[in-house]
Amino acid sequence: MAKKPKSKNPRILIVTPEITYLPAGMGNMAQRMSAKAGGLADVSASLVSALFNLGADVHVAMPNYRKLFQGDVFNLHEKELKKYHEVLPEDHIHLAEDRIFYYRDRVYSSHSDEAMRIALVFQREVINHIVPKARPDLIHCNDWMTALIPAMAKRRGIKSLFTVHNIHTRQASLAQVEDTGIDAAEFWMNLYFSDNPVSYDHARSKLPIDLLTSGIFASHFINTVSPRFLWEIVEGWHSVVPWSVRQEIRNKYYAGCASGILNAPDASYHPSTDDALAQKFGAHDFLEGKRANKLALQHELGLEQDPDAPMFFWPSRLDPVQKGPQLVTDILFKMVSDYWHKGLQVAVVANGPHEVHFKKIIKDFNLGKRVAIVDFDERLSRMAYAGSDFMLMPSLFEPCGLPQMTAPLYGSLPVVHGTGGLYDTIRPIDVSNSTGNGFRFDHYDAQALRWAVDQAMEFHELPQDLKFTQIRRVMLESEKEYSHEEVARKYIAIYEDMLTRPLVD
User: What is the pTM of this model?
Assistant: First the structure.
């Protein structure tokens, strides 16, 4: 049982630019609060919900994406709309107000300049209006879009936790920040600049601010979203990690102000309750459920209808910089060809720069009945978790990852590269000892991935009773292992530790 915060029950303000949902108890409009661009939304939602349910005095700051929040309510008559707004909860949900948020149909834009403007305006509203109103004891910020806030918090004597979800960063000038309406002169000395500033004027006119590094630099404590990824950064892995980000994370780590906390899949991901599935199932009747979902998925994707065909599912964006889809296309034709007699299939429900290569291989080798690629769709993705036998995630680096934790809940065993959160969550399956939950390879290349695929296929050919016993075990163990209450307990422990530490200028 997770413990509640001690005695005072400090007020925690979680600042996030996106969220999937809020707990119903936070107010009448809470369940309409949904603005998602990626995994941060799911993580924010589950953390806020778990903390709230544990009795923490948790508040959330987010942009007022009116159109996204209200859906068809947005089209109500103006008088009715005003009346509807009067029931918005004001005690725990703090909405950043600006027309830049109001009429958006998605959280971010593909244009980096607009994404920067949205991030700066959001932070302006948090700094100028929400923090004075909420009066938090501690502010929990997330990624570069909130990275100016720890610098402000430090200046005002408020402790801050900064969660590093990924290593992507942006740069902005001090003038750009201040032109947005943020009085950065108050806390400019707590920001991380591209070079050592001689003075405020020098910094404002000459030196860009590195946002992600500023969040790490100024915060009281940081966490990455897996212990292994923190260790990899400290040890110098991954050339894609910016030098400044690595150095500041190292500084926090060696000062005892950094930890890794794994996320957990959203609670809606469970085959016994998932309305997206063709047939719901649990650990004790998964055989029939998975067969029904595989047939339904094969029908929708135009694959051969065969409930016994081994199916590999790709759930992540097709990003060759991080996610490793090129490892799959390097082996795709031979992998399908070598296991043609077994009926092997590959289902890709994702978008990204590398999708053109999947489509070319399918066309050139006439693999349309064995390999399918479609745009990401939440319903199809959930059905693919349920219908597939294996899930592919050969990432070069992975701060945490959620698909490898989601797939085992549905009886789909992950095939992953041993890095970051993938290393922390997936252990090689050992049938003889009834341990492990997937297939892991350690060297980042196509041959190593093919080795892991072969291991998965060997598992697929095991006697049915032996195989199903292991799948059932993995499903049941995953339910216990990936707990939002446990994630919340770890964050509460950090909050309590931070609040007992002195603030260092």
Answer: 0.86
Q: 182 to each of 145, 148, 179, how far by Cα in Å?
A: 14, 10, 7
Closest by CA to 223, choosing from 261, 193, 194, is 261
Per-residue exposure over 324-359, b if at least 16 CB sit within 10 Å of its own CB, e if not: bbebbbbebeebbeebeeebbbbbbbbebebbebbe
Residue 168's CB: how many other CB atoms inside 10 A? 13
| 172 and 150 Cβ atoms separated by less than 8 Å | no
C-alpha 107/C-alpha 115 separation (Å) is 9
Positions of the chain with pLDDT lower than 50, given as ranges:
1-7, 26-33, 35-37, 72-89
Looking at residue 290, its amino acid is K
* Residue 347, beta-bridge partner list: 313, 372
Q: Single out the residue of 478, 474, 475, 466 nearest to residue 435, CA to CA.
A: 474
Q: For residue 219, which amino acid is it?
A: S
Cβ neighbours around 321 below 10 Å, total: 12
pLDDT at res. 10: 86
Q: Which pLDDT score, from 0 to 100, does residue 29 have?
A: 44
Q: What is the pLDDT of residue 26?
A: 46
**Other CB atoms within 10 Å distance of the CB of residue 242:** 15
Give 200-208 contacts, CB < 8 A, sequence gap 24+. 203/174, 204/173, 204/174, 204/175, 204/178, 205/175, 207/174, 208/171, 208/172, 208/173
Q: What count of Cα atoms within 13 Å lies in the side-chain half-sphere of residue 459?
A: 29
Q: Mention every residue, 6+ apart, whose C-beta is less than 8 A from residue 488.
A: 2, 47, 50, 51, 54, 56
Q: What strands, in cross-sheet order, belong to the sheet with 138-142?
A: 93-96, 57-63, 11-15, 138-142, 159-164, 221-224, 258-260
Q: How many C-beta atoms lie closer than 10 Å to residue 276's C-beta? A: 18
Written as six digits, the tokens of 293 are 């979902």
Position 89 scores a pLDDT of 43
Alpha-helical (H) ranges within 239-309 are 243-254, 286-301
What is residue 137's predicted lDDT score, i.e. its pLDDT?
Answer: 94
3-state secondary structure 116-170: HHHHHHHHHHHHHHHHHHHCCCEEEEECHHHCCHHHHHHHCCCEEEEEECCCCCC
The amino acid at 436: G
Estimate to the nearest angstrom the gap between the alpha carbon of 80 and the chain centroid: 36
Q: At what angle do helices 464-481 and 446-460 cross, to 10 degrees?
A: 120
Q: Which helix (H) or strand (E) holds 278?
A: none
Specify the amino acid at residue 340.
Answer: W
